[in-house]
Amino acid sequence: MSTTTTFPKTEKKPITAADNQKRVDSHKKVAEHLTNASKSHMEAAKHHENGEHEKAAVSTITAHGHHTLARDLQKEDARLHATQA
Fold this sequence. Notes:
Elements: H1 17-49, H2 53-84
Helix pairs in contact: 1-2
């Protein structure tokens, strides 16, 4: 026998144009950071191929920074979506 739990439905708040624009901007920032992270990883690979390991380390750290910024923006966006669901 299975038990099904139902939760009361709450009314969804309409998303304002300003809030929607914030979400659009956030997604664009995430994409930009992920693009920059990818570019930095490619630079790191090239530096390693050329034996320039210190430059590769700098590029790797830059990539990780962009990834961290993107992840933080994604967490905030997920929180906003969860509160609107």
